[in-house]
Design goal:
Helix content: under 10%
Oligomer: single chain
Shape: globular
Number of strands: 15
Strand content: 35-45%
Length: about 190
């Protein structure tokens, strides 16, 4: 359910049956023999490459977060307070903080402290509202697309300002009108 390209142009594919890799120049799926985790039967929900070039794997089996160093050695393993199959999406805010969206809201994970807390960037983040879309853009904005008719939120990491976009903010004739009730996916396009 997640795909990424690493700095060596390998393609990593997280599936409901494990972690697989397509090596640069070889067009076949393979289990990475150097990986510190056994790839079979681990439900991978999200894979990231951190600012420190670590692969970060959010696995649903036991709701575990694994940090894999660039030398493929395990550099951190953390148990989350979430139920199995709870993690939907995740992004890196900085080299210590990660946002994790779940079926029960958005949480911040602080790696150095091994601490989880409800996301403080939006009101009612730990409610029955699911966060589907999650993106950190190149302007230090964190975009969060909530379900349950809650719309789209933008939090600026530098100014600490939160903006809520929904169909209720503006009149339909206003150019700023954004008819969003449920933002399922968010993408930034380079210009």
């Amino acid at each position: 359910s997640s795909i990424l390209r690493d700095s060596e142009n390998n393609i990593w594919i997280g599936t409901l049956n494990g972690l697989f890799k397509i090596t640069n120049g070889i067009n076949k799926f393979q289990v990475d023999a150097k990986s510190p985790i056994v790839a079979n039967n681990i439900r991978i929900k999200k894979i990231l490459v951190s600012s420190e070039n670590e692969k970060i794997i959010f696995a649903e089996n036991g709701s575990t977060i694994l940090f894999i160093a660039s030398n493929n050695q395990l550099s951190g393993k953390y148990q989350t307070p979430f139920q199995t199959n709870d993690i939907i999406n995740a992004i890196e805010i900085n080299n210590n903080e990660y946002l994790i969206s779940t079926w029960h809201g958005i949480f911040s994970f602080y790696r150095k402290e091994n601490y989880f807390e409800p996301c403080k960037y939006i009101p009612d983040s730990v409610s029955q509202h699911v966060c589907w879309g999650l993106l950190k853009d190149r302007h230090n904005n964190v975009w969060m697309g909530l379900g349950g008719g809650k719309g789209l939120y933008r939090y600026n990491i530098i100014t600490k300002e939160t903006k809520h976009f929904s169909q209720y903010n503006y009149a339909p004739t206003d150019a700023r009108y954004l008819p969003i009730r449920n933002a399922m996916s968010i993408l930034e396009i380079d210009k």
